[in-house]
Backbone:
């Protein structure tokens, strides 16, 4: 797994995003057992406590579960994963509108630009 | 209870104080960056914690006790400069650590040294600077200590060695221990830190967590550091 941790945003939030994405894309498949916090922390080059905090959030979101016998696993609830996907898609779209707004395009102009580009 | 505690800790070298009334408490279970420009007192603080210097005022306590033979049992210290003799071989260093420290995990150290490609018979003088730094860190991190004090562990090494060293720290420290990393190379270490302590001219000027700084200020600890010290005459 490729980790790109930027320096201007909280590390734990970026870890949550990375792992969520890995679950959505199936890199961590539904129901699969996850590597240990320490292994993932070493892999990402981050503090194990920060990785732990990211997992706590993923568990709250229900994307990850901790079971006494199986350790930490990815949820096998497809609907839940789909909702996470939609959430990330919405965030990407918001980021797009924001970038366009900064360039001076309103929604209609940005949409026209997008459709025009799709046409090509 | 704090594993490292300073109360009004003061140290002078001749005139100006190197440490000026430092109050500080570090709990186990995290990695703390002791950050500051050259001459801010980082090395002095670590030397005091190891009993290599004695305070001129205040006190420093390790696990509730003044630095002594007893505290050295639980403190694993990486000094700024290497103290190994050039003629020594890898296996002799392993013997030395085994003799001195009951908590030294020799098998773990041997395994890491082997993976680094170091032979037991190899002499220190035959090693590059990067190799020496890595070897020394492996020895220090192979102790199952309660407090790791690492003075500039990534100073003067290439980026790949830097990654190796940070990786070795996060994958080996005992989770019930505290790790203190002193450095001025903040951009390189900030992702592995829980907390940061900024020292300037012998005083603590800021203490926070990395993620609190990033979410409150929207910038890296390195960027904040540059701002804090921009006006400082010592920077």
Residues:
């Amino acid at each position: 797994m490729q980790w790109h941790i930027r320096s201007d945003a909280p590390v734990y939030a970026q870890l949550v995003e990375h792992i969520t994405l890995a679950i959505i894309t199936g890199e961590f498949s539904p129901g699969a057992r996850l590597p240990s916090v320490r292994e993932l922390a070493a892999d990402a080059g981050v503090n194990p406590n920060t990785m732990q905090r990211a997992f706590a959030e993923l568990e709250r979101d229900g994307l990850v579960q901790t079971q006494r016998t199986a350790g930490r696993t990815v949820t096998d609830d497809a609907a839940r994963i789909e909702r996470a996907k939609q959430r990330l898609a919405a965030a990407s779209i918001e980021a797009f509108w924001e970038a366009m707004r900064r360039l001076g395009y309103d929604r209609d102009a940005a949409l026209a630009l997008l459709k025009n580009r799709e046409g090509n | 209870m704090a594993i490292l505690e300073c109360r009004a800790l003061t140290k002078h070298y001749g005139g100006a104080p190197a440490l000026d009334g430092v109050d500080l408490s570090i709990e186990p279970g995290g990695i703390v960056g002791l950050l500051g420009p050259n001459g801010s007192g980082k090395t002095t603080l670590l030397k005091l914690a190891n009993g290599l210097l004695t305070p001129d005022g205040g006190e420093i306590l390790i696990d509730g006790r003044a630095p002594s033979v007893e505290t050295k049992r639980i403190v694993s210290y990486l000094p700024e400069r290497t103290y190994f003799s050039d003629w020594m071989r890898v296996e002799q260093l392993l013997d030395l650590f085994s003799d001195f420290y009951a908590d030294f995990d020799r098998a773990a150290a041997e395994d890491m040294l082997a993976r680094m490609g170091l032979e037991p018979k190899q002499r220190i003088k035959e090693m590059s600077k990067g190799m020496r730094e890595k070897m020394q860190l492996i020895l220090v991190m192979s102790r199952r200590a309660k407090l790791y004090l690492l003075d500039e562990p990534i100073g003067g090494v290439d980026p790949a060695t830097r990654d190796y060293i940070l990786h070795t720290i996060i994958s080996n420290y005992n989770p019930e221990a505290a790790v203190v990393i002193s450095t001025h190379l903040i951009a390189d270490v900030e992702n592995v830190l829980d907390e940061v302590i900024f020292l300037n001219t012998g005083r603590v000027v800021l203490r926070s967590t990395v993620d609190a700084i990033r979410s409150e200020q929207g910038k890296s600890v390195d960027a904040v550091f540059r701002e804090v010290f921009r006006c400082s005459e010592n920077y």
The longest strand of chain B covers residues 17-26.
